Amino acid sequence: MTELIIFLGPPGAGKGTQASRLAEDKNLAHISTGDMLREHVSNNTELGKTAKSLLDEGKLVPDSLVIEMLIDRLRSEKNKDGAILDGFPRTLAQANSLDKISENFPISKVIVFDANHEELIKRILHRGETSGRSDDTKDSIKVRLDVYQKDTEPLIEYYEKNNSTIKINAVGDVEDIYNLLSKEF
Ligand code: AMP
Predict the structure, then answer these.
(1) Ligand 1 test: best mutation among 32, 61, 94, most atoms within 8 Å of CB?
(2) Where are the chain's structural domains?
């Protein structure tokens, strides 16, 4: 059995930074579907070819493709004490796919990162100066925030009903945010 910690929150909220640190401290797998998809794009795999333009535009990759990729990855993580899902689920269909495997992969906590849009846009544009990410651009950020609001934000309510959700204010110093976060574990 592998317990899952879900990191939910808009692009630019710092999920990836916090996840990689928490994963290291607590011997958890850090599973970022965004990182996995970017790797597919740079390796020019079939999935990468399908995903590339969607990533560039800030749109979501189809559920069926992401779900299969994620479940394969979860099954391959054997030596960890759990896994952080950074960027998954992003839609109700993806959340339902996790419910279906909950016997082997129960959700222990859902961390919700909270930040206002202005702050996020500022951060992503700043990150774009060095990230090399083709989607850290003004046009793409707008789409990514819209997609978040429409498809992903409703998951907060979904998880509040059945799971233990914890809201973290994601604006501020990385170190302070990590201290808040790690108190929960
Ligand atoms: P991220 O690194 O989490 O910001 O993700 C970057 C991009 O990868 C997103 O804008 C989507 O195009 C794609 N992506 C990542 N995770 C998912 C997911 N769970 N479902 C669909 N598309 C995803």
Answers:
(1) 61
(2) 4-179
